[in-house]
Amino acid sequence: MNETNNKFxxxxxxxxxxxxxxxxxxxxxxxQTAAPMMLVKGEGMRVEDANGKQYLDAASGGLWTVNxxxxxxxxxxxxxxxxxxxxxxxxxxxxxxxxxxxxxxxEKMPGMSRVYYSNSGSEAxxxxxxxxxxxxxxxxxxxxHKILFRERDYHGTTxxxxxxxxxxxxxxxxxxxxxxxxxxxxxxxxxSQWGDVSDYGVRAxxxxxxxxxEQGPDTVGGVVLExxxxxxxxxxxxxxxxxxxxxxxxxYDILLHIDEVVCGLGxxxxxxxxxxxxxxxxxxxxxKGVASGYAAISCTVTxxxxxxxFKDESDPRMGYFRDVSTFGGCTAGPAAALENMxxxxxxxxxxxVRTQGEYLRSGLTKLxxxxxxxxxxxxxxxxxxxxxxxxxxxKEPVDETVLMAIAAHCQNESGVxxxxxxxxxxxxxxxIALSPALIATSDxxxxxxxxxxxxxxxxxx
Length: 461
Ligand SMILES: Cc1ncc(COP(=O)(O)O)c(C=O)c1O
Description:
By secondary structure, this protein is an alpha/beta fold. The protein contains 14 helices and 15 strands.
């Protein structure tokens, strides 16, 4: 196709998109007069829109996904070669990349031993909930079926994943929800429920214990937690938090399910977020960065003792895990995931995340000295957030429209795409989220920090 034809085809696609596609998490009113952005090319950290404008993507595909960056030919080739060889068969049978990726993945997850494939983060979490529920049925006469979740965490888009999500606006109008999911309070020290206390982490974790005791420990089978809350405002757990959570889970025989959909595969500088805290989970779920968006794949990973419970010879009809995910049998996912993991290892990206993450953090801390609108900076590795307030003393959050204006300024004036809390809460949609690809250089970080500097200044002058 020559360049004129190419441009024409792109314009037609923009018009078809505007007319026919229902975009995610989007208010379509403005799209009646202006087409939504369409991206036509990606290379490294950068994407290009249909008008030829380039952007530095500090949000890894808008949803912390493209961990190894855009335009990776080696992943595309691995997927192509696998697809022409064998594209799909139900996971009732094995396939080579799924077997190979499971082995490699488990090497990075000491203590974990089985990988169950599906195709989205929500679905991986649903599998975990079904595992907890079936264990309750097998071992506890169905009584220990409740699953706890934390205020501000997000676990997915399906009704049951939303039922376990602690975000009011994400859930609003989508009820009634699945019964048996119970919320406990957040662990955001900046908004401490007890003022300035020295043992905030332990107190916040004990809120989980309080809810367990209220519900009755013999009714609670599992708890699902993000290692660091992502879309709920980049909330790093306070000191002492994870140790106490682990102790409480042991004390009441409650399975610990960690949702690594965002933190998994290197985002925090370790393979998995929980590995920063020495936690020993029973179930780990992951999606997004597993194949960096080159193919859809998610995994629900369990320990061997959990898997063993489903090898139940006493009940051949109902004893095993009677679940299936059609697209869990696509081979493109594990083929892409294997190559994605090779890239992270060979390019030493975990180290890059630690180095550039510190550099990003120091840039953001300097911005905080300059702009009183920044109330808090938090995060780990290439996963950082800025909580914006009207007044540092009262910590009153800025309105979501301020973040929308900052994001628009970064994008339009500096060509930098950033993330932000988006219609998740009644009042706390006030955190900017940065999650550049794990390949970010210090020049990229400088561009991101400078863009934010100018955008925040534009809001305050
Ligand atoms: C922590 C977390 N868990 C689960 C999900 C759901 O993943 P998916 O959109 O692939 O269903 C998300 C998506 O943003 C997430 O951030």
